[in-house]
Design goal:
By secondary structure, the protein is mostly helical. It has six helices and no strands.
């Protein structure tokens, strides 16, 4: 019985923290997540390229770090993203 419970628990999606998304998501995953926040098209593509370039240098340590290192991602847009991604799984 405990094994069945463990198997079922492993199938439940785990909550993903937004900072982890910025640090680990693929370009396709970021594109999908940006769309959730209402950021699409060329704007999303530009942000994703900048995110990927910045995290190659080092992982982001905070949301302030992301805003500082990613051109086009100011405080207001970051708040929009965090609001949209609030309960993300």
């Amino acid at each position: 019985m405990e094994q069945q419970i463990t198997l079922l628990q492993q199938q439940i999606p785990q909550k993903v923290e937004p900072l982890e998304v910025f640090n680990t998501a693929t370009a396709a995953e970021l594109l999908q997540k940006m769309a959730i926040a209402g950021i699409r098209g060329k704007t999303a593509e530009k942000l994703i390229k900048t995110i990927e370039k910045a995290r190659k240098q080092s992982y982001f340590t905070s949301f302030t770090d992301i805003v500082r290192r990613v051109d086009g991602l100011a405080d207001k847009r970051m708040l929009t993203i965090l609001d949209a991604w609030g309960g993300m799984y």
